[in-house]
């Protein structure tokens, strides 16, 4: 059975031999090693290890802050805004004020990214008013975020008023705030004033916004200005935001000039760059506009060909014939049929062919995600065929966006055509568990255990991974139940030693160290020789720790002595001797945390 994560943790457990459990300088070194995994491309593994080994806040507050700060940094780097929000909600009372402010500011940014501006402002009010702010720069940042929250809600009057008050208190605006002020003026249709501010800012973003203000005033741009737009749109080393704005302005210009093909092409390119940007409510491009342009183009073609609405076959035949020579026309027809075809089967077919065509475009994946976003908002997902919802759920899951995947799969409980039902349900169980719908995910796992499903090979690996997820979300009683059922069904020694180890971990998390010890020792007894010796030593070390937690110091000391005899590594011996010294201290002074 292949379990790379299990083996990694196993090696980490014994190699560190307490450097993670005893809060010393060494634990900070191990935290650095775990965080490095994220930089090497394994952020999910980093987060899982942090979840497993992060010190307890009440016992080791200083170390907890270090680990928690790394956790939030990894979540931010993954743009896991929902994960940041979920984590913040778990914080205990008594968090240090400085850390709390930093974390809450990150929480505010997360809510803004998720377009929950009202909730973001509620937390900003707390930051501004709940406690005394000694850092003047922090207060400026909070007020900046308040203004941006109003922009995210397209509340132009509130944004203008907040900016006016900000200027009263901070008359010398830095370039970043000057740019925000100009954006608010653009939003308020005060284009000449916006241009005046933008003229004093030396940046590519100010250039493109100035061109937008000029276009909105005169409905035209000079040849030189248009060339500058094209340069900024195509220059890959420019910031994503600048290129997005340049394409959006080109789309608006093409629409004014009634250049229908250029309008759609520019809107597609703008959409490919839209992801992850702060809200720009004064921009007139986006997914909904692109769907409208596709539909208008398709209807114009249908009228020229004298096609009847509802005659799906004729429309599909026209679209299929244009794929190679006129792909934009084909995309437009498929988009129209995806929403308006008379038969559901034809809508499904049109969605599939539209997806295939969009994926051929430059940054097609990003365009596709942004294009379909409005259709999944509110109750819109119910309009989409199940096969399409499965498609987007898979894409979201591949990026680690479990919450979005869960949204795509709401109310769907059957595997898509052509997919293995067992694998699909395991994947679905994992999505449900990680998205907070734990009971539904557990029901799927129990169903597989009690069915004729053969849990072996990759099927068993996937099943085990979902149970690990249950441990991550603290469902330890259920994890023990499922692991115990697997024990009863399997005779493979290697699997059984691993199952006992993971059962012991859950008992330890449930503060039942005696039962944890029993399973750690069963795991050690099943380890055999060779590679299994390392596993046995790791299991015995964890058993000794659990015995100490239970106050059974003599038994713990016996296991530490066995480990001392079994290792020749000087550093490991030093750690084990320190553990034994801590046991003596606890026996002499009960209640002391060694």
Report on this structure.
The chain is mainly α. It has helices at residues 4-16, 25-39, 43-53, 61-77, 81-88, 97-113, 117-130, 136-152, 156-169, 175-187, 191-198, 204-218, 223-234, 240-256, 260-272, 287-304, 312-322, 327-340, 344-358, 364-372, 386-398, 402-408, 421-434, 438-449, 457-472, 476-489, 493-509, 513-525, 531-549, 553-566, 570-588. Helix 6 packs antiparallel against helix 7 and helix 8 (136-152) packs antiparallel against helix 9. The radius of gyration is 29 Å and the shape is flat. Residues 1-26 have low confidence and may be disordered.
**Morphology:** flat
- State the helicity in percent bands: over 70%
Number of strands: 0
Mean pLDDT: 85
Helical run tally: 31
Query: Would you identify the regions where 5 or more consecutive residues have pLDDT less than 50?
Result: 1-26
